[in-house]
Hints:
The chain is 4% helix and 55% strand. By secondary structure, the protein is mostly beta strands. The protein has one domain: Porin (Beta Barrel), CATH 2.40.160. Strands 1, 2, 3, 4, 5, 6, 7, 8, 9, 10, 11, 12, 13 and 14 form a 14-stranded antiparallel β-sheet that branches.
Amino acid sequence: MNLRVILFLIGIFLINTTHAQQYHLFKPVPRAELREFALDRPDVTESPQTVDAGHFQFEGDVLKWVKQNGGISERTINIWNGLYKLGLTNNWDIHFGYEAYNINRNDDGDKLDEGGGAFTIRLKRNFWGNNGDTKTALGAIPYVTFPTGNPFEKNQDVAFGVGFPFSCDINGKLGWGAQPQFDFVPNAEGGYDLSFFQTVVLGGTVIGDLDFYAEAVSIFAKDENQYLANGGLIYNISPNVKVDIATNIGLNKPAPTKIYLGLSFRI
């Protein structure tokens, strides 16, 4: 069942991508021709741009603190929650996400459990705007998540879905973006519930190599909705290395609050 879901998502989004490519996984884009370094983090709204063909990119939380609200009052510390990305063609890349180490505690500070977390496989397809030659850009990101961290384990309740990141440049230093996403989440009856979220983000340069973003997120699920206000700072150490610090603030009881420190680089 899990393998069928993956093949179904890959098959749909690989349609019309078999034409010849100037560069691909085994013929990398020369470093002098690399596009601007685009990230899917730290905001929830992801980038429509893909990783250049034949290049590797890492984006992850070095450290993240999460507080569940709404009566649960659990705290989670995520250590090295990473997304490993590889450029396949000019407008396709593939992502592998893994939560390396999680520590869950209750409100009294007692440890509930610890260890590795979920494993996610994603594809990204850019439809236009990948090279920065248009004011707008649009992409699609289908994904499947294995909660046990093992994609080969049978009979686990995987989640899957697809998001559509969009971005628009305002004046070269300021831009906005949005992302609708549809998620199919396992339920207790052995089926799936549809969850939908919508984001809107504004971001740009603060001064020099320091960037900012401010974001609103609404999540509409079967049993409860969540509303969050997010923001953060990204420092561009070099054209290929960035660090960030950010927060997600839950505006209602079901919405968690998060604070995280991130690192991103490409080679």
